[in-house]
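TICKET: design request
STATUS: open
ATTACHED STRUCTURE:
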């Protein structure tokens, strides 16, 4: 079965984006004029999602406000000539169901995903972290196909320089798996020291998981930093049977940090017909 559900955890504190996140959730930061959350929902839908489960926090009412259907706003966007954007907005809550569930406190990504259990129940489901924006829906589509074909969870991967591994979840590939993948994953470790890292292959914020992961999430105990880690539940799954890792081949922007967000805005703006050409002229002049 392909993943019909897409879980988008958006209940975190957004510490790295203070003070803006005092009032504005980082998931709603604009990529030009569209919130990162909209881009990630568009990706989920392009990847086959029919039902989006947003995990939010009572402290972030803007998230729920954004996904509330609003025919007047759609009409105003349409009247301004932006038909494609109006269609994307109109899908939310009509073609695609959206549920909002609340995480009482930001107790970690594993806990946030576990909060979606009551909606997802017993089907494979996608997880898309909304502070990572992708250039297209290729990876999430491949992950969903992989789970359909194999019946085991699949995660997106990328290689990083070894001195950066300590910021990420790092995989142990099955012996002999190398090159462009796909990889069998026999273990996962969160934020290892550089010298202890089993590889330089990190898990990025795109997953399609089989529903047995919910039992592992329910059994999680806090890690060293006090958070309930999704990585620890994946590790439990990998111990029972290797997971699949698929290398990301699309553009990826980490919009959870000011530097990554700025890069995303500039790069995506340069690709847009309405603002790109003028921005390019200005940048060339500015940098010459
Ligand atoms: P991050 O760790 O990047 O988000 O989690 P954060 O905790 O908000 O960021 P910092 O470190 O304080 O700056 C990735 C995604 O998971 C969500 C976040 O909202 C983000 O979109 N998340 C994280 C939750 O929903 N609940 C949590 O307990 C933790």
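STATUS: resolved
RESOLUTION: sequence designed for all positions
ATTACHED SEQUENCE:
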């Amino acid at each position: 079965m392909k993943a019909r559900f897409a879980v988008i955890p958006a209940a975190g504190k957004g510490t790295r984006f203070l003070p803006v996140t005092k009032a504005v959730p980082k998931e709603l930061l604009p990529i030009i004029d569209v919130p990162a959350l909209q881009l990630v929902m568009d990706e989920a839908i392009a990847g086959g999602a029919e039902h989006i489960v947003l995990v939010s926090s009572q402290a972030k009412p803007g998230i729920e406000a954004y996904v509330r259907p609003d025919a007047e706003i759609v009409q105003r966007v349409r009247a301004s000539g932006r038909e494609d954007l109006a269609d994307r907005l109109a899908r939310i809550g009509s073609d695609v169901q959206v549920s909002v569930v609340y995480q009482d406190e930001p107790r970690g990504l594993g806990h946030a995903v576990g909060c979606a259990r009551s909606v997802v129940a017993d089907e494979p489901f996608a997880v898309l972290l909304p502070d990572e924006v992708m250039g297209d829906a290729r990876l999430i589509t491949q992950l969903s196909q992989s789970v359909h074909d194999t019946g085991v969870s699949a995660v997106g991967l990328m290689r990083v320089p070894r001195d950066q591994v300590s910021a990420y979840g790092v995989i142990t590939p099955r012996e002999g798996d190398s090159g462009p993948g796909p990889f069998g994953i026999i273990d996962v470790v969160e934020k290892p020291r550089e010298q202890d890292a089993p590889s330089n292959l990190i898990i990025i914020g795109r997953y399609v998981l089989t529903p047995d992961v919910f039992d592992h999430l329910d059994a999680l105990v806090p890690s060293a930093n006090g958070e309930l880690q999704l990585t620890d539940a994946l590790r439990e799954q990998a111990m029972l049977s290797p997971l699949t890792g698929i290398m990301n081949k699309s553009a990826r922007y980490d919009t959870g940090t000011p530097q990554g967000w700025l890069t995303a805005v500039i790069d995506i703006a340069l690709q847009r017909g309405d603002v790109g050409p003028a921005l390019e002229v200005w940048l060339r002049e500015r940098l010459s």
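CLOSING REMARK: The mean pLDDT is 96. The CA atoms of residues 14 and 21 lie 6 Å apart.
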